[in-house]
Amino acid sequence: MLSVICFPIRLHSRFCILSCAGRMRLVIHSAYYLPQNAGNIARNYVKDPELLSFIDAECFIVSTTKCHAETPYHAKHGNVMCDRHFGGINYPVGGIGEIAKSLAKGLVDQRSEILYKANATVGVKLSDGRQFYAKTIISNATRWDTFGKLLKKEDLPEEEKRFQKAYVKAPSFLSIHLGVKADVLPPDTDCHHFVLEDDWENLEKPYGSIFLSIPTVLDKSLAPEGNHILHIFTTSPIEDWEGLSRKDYEAKKELVAEKLINRLDKKLFPGLKSSIVFKEVGTPKTHRRYLARDSGTYGPMPRTTPKGLLAMPFNTTAISGLYCVGDSCFPGQGVIAVAFSGVMCAHRVAADIGLEKKNPVLDTALLRVLGWLRTLA
């Protein structure tokens, strides 16, 4: 069983229960904004430059894209505006890996097995002995990896050619995992921090802003007694790390990591540097190697001003039986958006293979309309 910790956040929202008619009006009203741009909408109503910069930072924290005129009106940006904090945040005890472990344990507990052949998953054997082999393939690789590496470039569908013209790869991250002595952190330390010391203009610049998570504030079992884990990360392009000798590469990792740690030592936790008992640094090349992401990218960003969020590809592809999921699909990058993409893909596949009901006429019409909208990107 998966255990979670729910921890409150100071901000709370007020909400009302809408009638069916009210919800329908809300849906219709919201649909009006789908093809519009978040940056343009924000600037129609918000004039204070500091508040606009704060909104940019909130959106950047969620998805590494600002809510400016070049950014599509992603669902996650609306989520930021509408207060994502209500009810607190659920944290899986033992870390994020416990979610996958719990799902796998559920299969085993039901006397099911995952079948493997030549290091590839080929199907599932159920407790009653039935075996199922996949005719449906779901790729959670980036669009660039799926169409261009897993599939030959000469077989690239027109829809994917349009995607690669309309979107560019977002930068990757430099990550630092630290083990530190617990007494360097004040007793009331929060789990998540975002550091931008000087100028809003540095928000999107490489190494300009720092993300910090301290999971052991919530779950002490993740580290040995008397210690905390710090995950520090900042945007970093892979180009900064190409063409270096092994010696220069390792030296640069240490140099960049030291600068980031010094900033946190000065701004948040005096004595942090001297309290370190473990340090591991990963670069965009690390992300590319171990996460199999093209250039270590965090996801796609629009090349020019997009025509709303519906220009992004959804879970279906031009190849029958092949689906995509993740940050290269609607509604884009960021944990919230990717989780939503997963839910959508599950429903889409379930409908296509007959596990969920659908209206064939309306469904076909909807897919064609969405396909047409993507041609406008």
UniProtKB/TrEMBL annotation:
This protein's record includes keyword Isomerase: yes
Q: What's the domain of life for this entry?
A: Eukaryota
Looking at the keywords, is Transmembrane present? Answer: no
Instruction: Supply one GO molecular-function term.
Output: isomerase activity
Which Gene Ontology BP terms does the record give?
carotenoid metabolic process
Sorted alphabetically, the keyword list is:
Isomerase
Q: What is this protein called?
A: Prolycopene isomerase, chloroplastic
